[in-house]
């Protein structure tokens, strides 16, 4: 069995193991090629191509009439979910909804020097799509973390897609979560074919304006390729976590948190511990081996270990540790130090931050409030996590008075002259003739 890799790291002494760990392939060639082929087929043949891909990739032999999950099936699924699970789903939904609503930006305006107004206001998109993975694990939590945000933003039509099993069934907890969160249409279609269906539309399914939600490399490649036909939230890949710890941290807790992101199933997950002593590093590595034996998804985690996807880097101090964390730009970042809040201001690139020993990343995955749809693969350097505002359109407005236009007329006419746009200048000048 492979063990976590332990290395000493300093920005002055590059380490090959660290550099290999930090390197992540954004768009695998095979995923790009498969996505291009399926998407082109959907544009040509619509529903027929979607069904053919569902049969090929998911083993689901569906008819057009079977693509949508009926209201009766949604109601029946709710009856199958135990009360204890319903309680957990409702609590997660309430917390995420409250956070989403609190984060919505308010309209604002400011006075112009001449007595007019400028400002911004926001309107919900009309129809959006969300993708819910359902391969190695039916992610009911992702239903909450996506649909709830769109609903909070005021979107009227929320299309949800998730793959079904070969027997055409979808996990009942996932269906219950989708209905609770506010999905208005649910399709048992996954993978590339769901992205194409939502982006281009078919005879059965009208196109959406934006697609959000995580997925595997093939879903990610498809989202990237439909950008422009629709908006997308971000391009996301395998899950990641980084933990910054000093000797005050509990090594068993740090190990548990590193393992939490290594079990997702692709084998390409990344778990990084940055700590300040070799002794602590060795204790965490030993805990990983102990806890691994008790995990139901042990084989999936072992794939990550075999690919050197669990790295423990020992640094001389926390400042250097933060340098490495920011280079990694992780999806999830936990701070387990004696004074964790002091490190927050040093974070430059991460999807979500979990502060202190009582904040495991799994709290963010399920119930804390912020969406767990986050940038991966280093994309946290330029993308942020999903919010309710991502399902709204931002509109700027300008209301000039005569005095405002008079005051800016010279600048308008000058820019028009410089850029050779006579009609632009005339649109201002004509008002004063």
Strand order of the largest sheet: 1-11-10-9-12-13
CATH architecture of the largest domain: 3-Layer(aba) Sandwich
Looking at the structure, the CATH topology of the largest domain is Rossmann fold
Mean pLDDT: 94
The quaternary state of the protein chains shown equals: single chain
How many domain regions?
A: 3
CA-atom Rg in angstroms: 25 Å
What is the helix fraction of residues, given as a range?
40-55%
Give structural notes:
By secondary structure, the chain is α/β, with parallel strands linked by helices. It folds into three domains: 5-24 and 238-368, Rossmann fold; 29-232, Rossmann fold (3-Layer(aba) Sandwich); 400-432, no CATH class. Helices cover 44% and strands 16% of the residues. The chain has 17 helices and 14 strands. It has a six-stranded parallel beta sheet, with helices on both faces. A five-stranded parallel beta sheet has the order 6-5-4-7-8, sandwiched between helices. The longest helix has 21 residues, at 83-103. The protein is globular, with a radius of gyration of 25 Å. The relative contact order is 0.16. The mean pLDDT is 94.
